Amino acid sequence: MNAPDHTITTLPLAAGTSRVHESARAQVAGLATYVDDMPEVRGTVHAAPVCSPVAHGRLRGVDPSPALALPGVRGFVDAANVPGDPILAAFGHDEPVFAHDTVQHVGQVIGLVLADDVMTARRAARLVKLDIEPLPPVLTVHEAHARQQYVLPPVHVARGDAAAALARAPHVLEDSFEVGGQEHFYLEGQVAYVLPLEQNQWWVCSSTQHPGEVQHWVAHALRVPNHAVTVECRRMGGGFGGKETQAGHLAVWAAVAANKLGCPVKLRLDRDDDFQITGKRHPFAYSYRVGFDGSGLLCGLQLTMLANCGFSADLSGPVADRAIFHADNAYFLQDVAISSYRCKTNLQSHTAFRGFGGPQGVIVIERILGDIARHLGLDPLDVRLRNLYGTNERHVTHYQMPVEDNILDPLITTLAQTSRYRERRQQIAAFNAESPVIKKGLALTPVKFGISFTATLFNQAGALVHVYTDGSVMVNHGGTEMGQGLNTKVAQIVADELGVPFERVVCTAADTSKVPNASATAASSGTDLNGRAAQFAARHVRDNLAAFVAGLDGCGAGAVRFAGGEIHTPKGTRRWEDVVGAAYANRIQLWSDGFYRTPKIHYDKTTLTGRPFYYFAYGAACSEVAIDTLTGEYRVLAVDILHDVGHSINPALDIGQIEGGFVQGMGWLTTEQLVWNAKGQLTTHAPSTYKIPTTGDVPRHLRVDLWPEANREDNVHGSKAVGEPPFMLAISVYEALRDAIDQAGGDAGSVNAPVTAEEVLRALGG
Asked: What is the pLDDT of residues 121-144, one digit of tens each?
């Protein structure tokens, strides 16, 4: 022990500083392991799906014999080989493991061919003969709605008397429009690897955002208890919601095959199959009547939303619910009636996607306010500011949650100043007056996004923190790493809690045998939940060490301080690793668990009223575009963003998430067009026909600033969630394009999304 020294070593805290993503160097070097990189156990066979070629029909027979005759083919599995429930263990309990009796969409998996290598399996899958009697498919929400064909009952939410308010309103607009879906297009496709173990135990390596659900689904299909299945996920090459539920399908299919053959099975979809089999962001169709006064203030709103859910419920209920919750975005709706219909169509079962219904809610009110501004000849920003949530009675949402942390007005006003919005509008008007072909548009739109799972039970998390005798620290939590930097942030939080350098902490793979019953890494809550749980676990270990050191030095545990890799008391300073070694020798517990449940949240699922969110994250974006009126082509010229992440745990990661979310949202609203033909076949099923944004689409001027305030709620380190809210900042691009179309003399009110070049030209009358 050193001589008494009351000076505590001061080193930069890990949290609040930009740290390199924990896997970045390995990923750049090609050394980061994904599921398909894992060494395969001897005897592993590869699976390939046999998919329905028709959108709807009676499945009268399956003949795998031509496939089984191919050299290297080891077997075939279908619904008859599922030892447990033939229906997946999803909440809706409405989706078969493998199609039987009927097929419900093009690409629905009927069975798997199993072979010694993946290419043989894929070739053989195309040889399986299917006897399907076609039935008329339902392919649009309008047809489904007319037939009252829904995957879940409709939901209606109202406040006040919208009909009476519309009758009194000085002005009324009525319109309808549609917003398309979006393919997740993760770099790592859907994949699972299943190994049978001894005594009917199973190990599943899955590229999944929800290992706990994969565990439950596999156990349910194999008719074994959950403890017989271990699911591990070290990292994903992107998820975006597409691997929240639908990664479970591949794990179940591979497990059923492994159960039949008694050997390890790997199933990796190629890009075309992934497009055809898996669900997308839900396309929405809207119709509305809105009343307003001469200043643009909303008086009443009647809104109908038709969600295209595909053939089964999946997560369509909570997605459509969140669209209702976010139909206000940043604006107070006094008299409002919203009807949401969850339409069943013969398409892939649509699923979670970044924003989880929030974007489909936010875009409708932003479009309405843009149309109101054009109708009245007002600046759209002034109409938006006129309707913002405020104080007194104008601070409660239509689902009865008070907006207590409202920073909308100062945030938007600040961005309008820093982006020179008013000055640029004048410059754009002057440019457009002199430019006969190229026309510019500008829009500034805000975001208010609720943070928490709307399914309250998911707002919980667990973690383990292990301190080893050399002073190194290992963390395991229930979250999954999909590139967003969750493990990096959790390691920063734990390092600060223990007062050790960031480099001493490592986070390991998500593993159902370590943290049970973990929620999906979704709803932007990965750090909020798992970071806090890990912080609590580390705090337990720290408290054990503090009590031990206090006993040695005869002081209170509250006088013990942990910082800079050292432990300080009024009597002196010890090195962290020395204290850890001494504590172990004295049989002090050096590991602990932590648990966190989000406080304050509650709501009534039947009425959709209450407090579904712990807090709101805010942001705003100002986007400038230019369109070519002869071709419909356009370019996003400049984007300025001011976003609220509270006190950032890792500014570099947060800014990266904001930039990535914005560009992905821009893709949804501009280039990413999903097209199904009259037979229900997805014709945009590859990079040749489905266009995600490229580096050439990113505006040359893309500035991101962070709002400086801490989270007003007691969240970890005063931070706020960042994964999903920035996605909706891209609605500013949609509104800027509509502004440019209007200034070119086109019909901005007729524009659907995505706003492809063809859509621009059509709106211009071309």
From this structure: 999 999 999 999 999 999 999 999
Q: Considering just the CA atoms, what is the radius of gyration of the chain in Å?
A: 27
How many Cβ atoms from other residues are within 10 Å of residue 415's Cβ? 23
The C-alpha atoms of residue 508 and residue 506 are separated, in whole angstroms, by 7
Q: How far apart are CA 355 and CA 522, in angstroms?
A: 9
User: Do residues 758 and 651 lie in contact, with contact meaning Cβ atoms separated by under 8 Å?
Assistant: no
- Domains belonging to the chain, first-starting first, are 24-30+460-597 (3.30.365.10), 45-136+184-277 (3.30.365.10), 138-182+280-389 (3.30.365.10), 406-454+608-766 (3.30.365.10)
Q: Are the C-beta atoms of residues 351 and 181 closer than 8 Å to each other?
A: no
CA distance 763 to 305: 23
Query: Angle, nearest 10°, between helix axes 532-553 and 486-498?
Result: 20
Q: Are 715 and 528 in contact (CB under 8 A)?
A: yes
| DSSP string of 624-641, one letter each residue | EEEEETTT--EEEEEEEE
Q: Are 139 and 346 in contact (CB under 8 A)?
A: yes
DSSP structure string for 601-628: -EEETTTTEEE--SEEEEEEEEEEEEEE
Residue with tokens 């690897």: 193
724 is catalytic: yes
Tens of pLDDT, residue by residue over 501-515, are 999 999 999 999 999
Two structure tokens written together for 608: 């959709």
DSSP string, 459-475: -EEEEEEEE-TTS-EEE
Closest CA to 318 of 520, 99, 599, 529: 520
Q: Identify the three-state secondary structure at position 574.
A: strand
Q: What is the mean pLDDT of residues 318-332?
A: 98
Beta strands, E only, 191-315: 191-196, 202-206, 229-233, 265-268, 284-292, 298-308
The per-residue DSSP string of 53-102 comes to: SSSSEEEEEEE-HHHHTSTTEEEEEEGGG-SS-SB---TT---BSS--SE
Q: Please state whether the peptide bond connecting residue 754 to the residue before it is cis, i.e. omega within 30 degrees of 0.
A: yes
**3-state class of 439 per DSSP?**
strand
Q: Is residue 2 over pLDDT 80? A: no
**Cα separation of 388 and 377, whole Å?**
19
C-alpha 678: how far from chain center = 30
* Candidate list 22, 724, 735, 759, residue with the active-site label: 724
Output the 3-class SS for 358-383. Answer: HHHHHHHHHHHHHHHHHHHCCCHHHH
Predicted TM-score (pTM) above 0.85: yes
Both tokens of 166, joined, read 């519309």
Question: Quick check: 718 and 645 in contact, CB under 8 A?
Answer: no
Q: How far is CA 217 from CA 254, 280, 538, 625, in A?
A: 12, 21, 32, 46
SS3 563: strand
Residues 6+ apart with CB under 8 A from 396: 402, 403
SS3 content of the chain, % helix, strand, coil (to 5): 35, 25, 40
Instruction: Please report where in the chains the tokens 């409002």 appear, as a residue.
Output: 336
Gap between the Cα atoms of 568 and 2, Å rounded: 11
H or E, element range at 742: helix 731-743
Kind and range of the H or E element at 440? strand 438-451
Q: Is 40 in a helix, a strand, or coil?
A: coil
Q: What is the pLDDT of residues 552-573, one digit of tens each?
A: 999 999 999 999 999 999 999 9
Rounded distance, CA 158 to CA 168, Å?
Answer: 18
pLDDT for residue 12: 60
Do residues 188 and 236 lie in contact, with contact meaning Cβ atoms separated by under 8 Å?
A: yes
C-alpha dist (Å) from residue 489 to 11, 228, 476, 522, 651: 18, 31, 13, 16, 10
Once rounded to an integer, what is the mean pLDDT over residues 191-196? Answer: 98
